[in-house]
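Troubleshooting: if your tokenizer reports a length mismatch, compare your output against this known-good record of 70 residues.
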Amino acid sequence: LEHLLICEERLAAEAAKKFSAAATLEDAQGKHNKAKVVCVQGDVVDAAVAWLCAEPFGVPRRFVEVKKVK
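Known-good structure output:
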């Protein structure tokens, strides 16, 4: 998200508001990685991906990873 000039905190806050779901920031995997991962909880994965790839964020789909945890 940093490379796309998107603030992780703003994205998490707007996702929580948009989907009425918990959205948290977590550290990305890797020993020396300082990046953050935005996790949106709930059954809104498909809607969240479509929203993230559309305006105002315009994130290319190849940069969006979806993990469904059961």
